[in-house]
# Entry
Amino acid sequence: MKIDVNKIRVGNILECKGKRCIVLKKEATQPGKGGAIMQLELRDLDSGNKFMDSLATNKTVEKLETSQKEVQYLYTEGPNLVFMTMDDYEQFNLPATLLGERLPFLQESMMVSVHYIENDPISIHLPKTINAIIAETEGVVKGQTAASSNKPAILDNGARVMVPPFIKTGDEVVVNTEEMTYLERAKK
# Structure
């Protein structure tokens, strides 16, 4: 199915340069001359290699049709993640590399969506947001305002995110798992 480059989303499966690729990151840019460009970070689903590609926003690309199944994450066994289908309680393994840098956001008993192309598992989609505790961050500096730049923080799962200056160690925050970014303080 052909889609406009502007409609590409993180997690889409595209045919790019003759390969099946998943979109890891995207960024629209407007160079000084010419039309707008979409910068894509892609991972080849067969080799696992990451690469960058630039596409003009007035073009179309081939989005591959996928099927999906909701499954529950159970545990990690070596380089594999063990999941269970909820309809027949069948357990199966998938390589942890399908999650890439988002692996720390996977939590025990979490429901995830596994996407397939012709019964071949190609990606694992986590819930869009999760709650996490700030395990470590710099303290607040007097006179620093909320409008100043963000500071680095390490979450209880080991992932690193940038947070506003008012967030401190022990705070519970909401994190976007697709972009690995801070969204807000968790509601109490």
